[in-house]
Specification:
Layout lengths: L10 H11 L16 E5 L14 E5 H6 L5 H14 L7 H10 L11 E4 L3 E6 L2 E6 L1 E2 L6 E8 L3 E3 L16 H10 L9 E6 L2 E6 L1 H9 L4 E8 L3 H12 L11 H10 L1 H7 L9 H11 L4 H16 L25 H5 L2 H5 L16 H18 L13 H9 L2 H18 L5 H5 L8 H15 L11 H5 L4 H10 L4 H4 L5
Parallel strand pairs: 8-10, 9-11
Antiparallel strand pairs: 1-2, 3-4, 4-5, 6-7, 7-11, 9-10
Amino acid sequence: MAITLKRQISEDEKNIVLEKYGHICYATGHEILDEKDIHFDHIKAFADNGVSEIDNIAPMCKEHNLKKGRLPLEDFRIKLKLETFFQQGQALTLKDELQYFQDNKDINGFGLSVYSKSTENTIEIEIANKKTTYHLFTCPTTQWKYFYALIPVEAINSDDDEDGEIGLQPRYLILDKVFNLYRHFQKHPVLQPSIARLYKNKILVFDGQHKIASMLWGGRKEFELKIYINPDPQILNNTNIAAHDKFAQTRFYSSIMVSKLGSQFGKQFEDYKNKEDEEKKSELGFINHLKISDELTVAEANKRFYSFLYNMVLDPEVNNIVHLVSKSNRSSNEYPLTVDMLSKSLFSNFLYRHPLDEDMASKHYIREKEINNLIKLFNIFHDEALHDWDANKNSSDTNQNKLARLIRSKSIMSWSEILKDAIAAKLDVIDADDKEKLFYGEISDESFEKIRQVVRRLVEWAIWSLPQDSEIDRILSDNKSEIKKYMKSKGLTAGYLLGAPE
């Protein structure tokens, strides 16, 4: 039996562990059929002061013990359960997780009706025949009443759209965020309560759902809430949307970009972010830290950073062409795009891929805007062309053949450079340094309409629609230099994209 421990347990101890758990993988609950595939590991990690005693040891199958990497066994077990839950779909909220916990008998129920009776300064809440009185506060701006309470899970629900009424929950759950918060709250306190409203005898959470969702996986059954009493839903909805959008905090490293950095790079980013020094915390500083902590070459560190940026752009929740991007490095009828292809075309031309030296806690750190701008560009391509992609059609279909030519690997690499020149001109960007950071900044909706016109001109280039086996099909197998030369000779220039005739 394989074993990886700081203190090697004896054969007798192994047998005691197996008597307790059986030949069952602790992480998955699956039976381990082959004795040689049994590993033993700490439930609480050795690095977190977990002892190498049999009460803290459980059996694992070889496959999942290798898959868990450096994660503690209990955390890995939770991660697998989380992944199972998220297989239900992409648009999941706290309500879906509560239902999942109820279905698996981890909680008795949720969303119970509560009954209240209030005075000027207090409110009495009755939950499952238990009455508790709370002090009432008054918002000086709206005069709404609210109170703070520790509420059992049975009385909590998510403020989703229901029965024709619009809910106030603006976001769906994100797997990585739930898991990272689950791990965080194993060691740290909750600094701010989640926020809810009391509406039609229901306590509906509309802010801080990730907090509650994560603590549920840690076994928490009561949650700290700030609860408004029958507030104006329209005002509260606008306030909540603004809080998650234009007024979202960027200081204290709370931007989505920084959250994603922490999600992907895990402990290395936490170690870097929490270094007690006077140095500003930046992408460049983190990459330098990564090179030292993981003994990476410059190329290796940059490769990891590029992947992080690409993953941010290729977010399936907001990027409409992700379903066409192959998970491997080979394109196919079903997945005509690859990350490698995009890295040498749209990413290389519109994404500033050098680690930034700007303080991530300052308002000048706007990488997130660049990512969102690039996502908008991808979605324009979807709207103007790729929404028509049909894997079941072949090159005999005129429109499918046109799209296939447009996104052939060397084709997209060639016209991306022409497209960049045209968009830069459309946005009145002339300086070479500014062109290098073309999308790193605020781009108005009006400017994006201009960009859409440029992309539309590209898609409508007449040569794409020539019959099968035309000259372009031979040219697109040539090198990029020859393809660009051909495109320009046939009128595909920055000038044409800006509106000049071919």
